[in-house]
Write a structure and sequence with these properties.
This protein is an alpha+beta fold. It has 13 helices and 23 strands. The protein has a five-stranded parallel sheet. Strands 10, 11, 12, 17 and 18 form a five-stranded antiparallel sheet that branches. α7 runs antiparallel to α8. The longest helix is centred in the middle third of the chain and has 22 residues. The chain is globular. The structure holds adenosine monophosphate and glycine. Adenosine monophosphate binds next to β7, β8 and β18.
């Protein structure tokens, strides 16, 4: 099977790495990929994965490439091409593609849509209101005593969420988003949720339109600094499994969220084939959904795919084809920890082009895989090329062993300004 993967981050490196292990994969491309992806080889025939110079949002060019090269199966990593309708476009041209279609991508691209859907179909979530009028929005914040979370409706690069501790912060947040248009048109409408206390975990479920198969739990670390201080980022590290839900509790949570979700999709005529990633808060009154994403998490993918035993080509094919019911997800019993090494300054502005050293030494350690996120080759040297640079991922007999192995590998790697959290997985202990 000839496979094209779309995207360029750590998630896409993990997808390419795992897909390349499948005996079904005979040729692979990644658009645009990164320096680590370009080093992957197919298990089947040793062929290199070829990175092609096409952006993830260049839909017509990607379509032309897939047609010219007779790509059998395209796999989409990031949310933007999904929201732009890449799946619908490829399907209209008779091409097989994995990822959610444009209607299903609404769960991520519109927080208002998701909130209303959750309320309509009884999915446990925060008490919330949706508003297009700033005065009404402020009034609702007051009913929550100002302790609330104000969310811009549309995609805002993960930044359109403001957490408020009191009414004056809430009014300022509403002003910034709705009046000041801090996130552009994404803020014409807002969702305001009550502030929920608890432990936040990531759920992932692979869906095929009727069946949803839930993954083990994982936990991301969104803040830039140790102890959850600093600014919000795309995610500084993940681990799986988490100790916060037993198998039975996870099954309960999945039932309370995924059953009404799939029922609601059927009722609304939404064919949800792809990955559903609910961010949830484990509150004293049970798990509640904060938001839906409609794609694999980054860096959740890195830890999930190092634990997954199944052939990923077969799983994603089943998800796209509606035959997931025949598949059983199998996970290695080992724990996995991924520590992100970021550029100095991230998530603010940061330099690029810093030479990366020690990667081969790190990768040679047992049970270690270093996924590239923002890297490039320049004059024959591996250099930094993004905010999140590497995802150092370790498997271990238990979480403590995986954590120790990940940090041993991190210490082998150097680039100027590198920063990483030293407490990934510490919440589990
Ligand atoms: P979102 O993009 O909606 O997941 O929000 C980004 C982050 O804000 C989440 O990962 C949570 O840490 C936090 N957050 C969002 N909604 C709430 C809420 N209702 N209560 C507490 N924290 C929240
Ligand atoms: N891990 C955060 C995200 O993928 O949105």
């Amino acid at each position: 099977m000839k496979i094209l993967v779309i995207g360029s981050g750590g998630r896409e490196h993990a997808l390419v790495w795992k897909l390349a292990q499948s005996p079904h994969a005979t040729q692979m491309w990644c658009a645009p990929g990164n320096a680590g992806i370009a080093q992957e080889r197919l298990a089947m025939n040793g062929a290199a994965v070829e990175c092609i110079n096409l952006g993830a949002e260049e839909l017509p060019k990607l379509l032309a490439f897939a047609r010219e090269n007779r790509v059998d199966f395209t796999i989409v990593g990031p949310d933007n091409p999904l929201a732009l309708g890449i799946v619908d476009l490829f399907q209209r041209h008779g091409l097989k593609i994995w990822g959610v279609n444009q209607r299903a991508a609404r769960f991520e691209s519109s927080k208002v849509f998701s909130q209303k859907f959750m309320e309509k179909y009884g999915i446990p979530t925060a008490a919330a209101g949706t508003f297009s009028d700033a005065a009404a929005a402020k009034g609702f914040c007051a009913t929550l005593g100002g302790k609330c979370v104000v969310k811009a409706d549309g995609l805002a690069l993960g930044k359109g969420v403001l957490i408020c501790r009191n009414q004056s912060e809430a009014e300022q947040a509403v002003e910034e988003i709705m009046v000041g248009k801090a996130f552009g048109t994404a803020g014409a409408n807002v969702v305001i949720q009550e502030f929920l206390e608890g432990i936040e975990v990531s759920l992932h479920a692979l869906c095929d339109g009727t069946t949803a198969k839930v993954f083990p739990t994982s936990q991301d670390h969104k803040r830039a600094l140790d102890g959850d201080a600093g600014l919000n980022t795309g995610g500084m590290g993940t681990y799986s499994p988490t100790p916060f839900l037993t198998g039975a509790q996870l099954a309960d949570a999945a039932r309370s969220i995924l059953d009404p979700f799939m029922r609601g999709c059927a009722a609304e005529g939404i064919d949800f084939r792809g990955l559903l990633y609910p961010g949830i808060m484990l509150t004293r009154s049970g798990p509640k959904v904060l938001e839906f994403n409609a794609r694999f998490g980054d860096p959740e993918t890195q830890i999930y795919l190092t634990r997954l035993e199944n052939d990923l080509v077969e799983l994603l094919d089943a998800s796209a084809s509606g035959t997931l019911g025949d598949q059983e997800l199998k996970w290695k019993p080992e724990a996995s920890v991924c520590v992100i090494m970021a550029s100095g300054g991230y998530p603010g502005s940061y330099p690029k082009g810093k030479v990366i050293k020690g990667l081969d030494t790190a990768n040679a350690l047992p049970h270690i895989k270093v996924f590239h996120a923002g890297t490039a080759m320049k004059d024959g040297q591996l250099v930094t090329n993004g905010g999140r640079v590497l995802g150092v991922t370790a498997l271990g007999q238990d979480l403590r062993a995986a954590q120790a192995a990940a940090y041993t590998a991190v210490e082998k790697i150097q680039f100027e300004g590198a920063h990483y959290r030293r407490d990934i997985a510490a919440k589990a202990f």
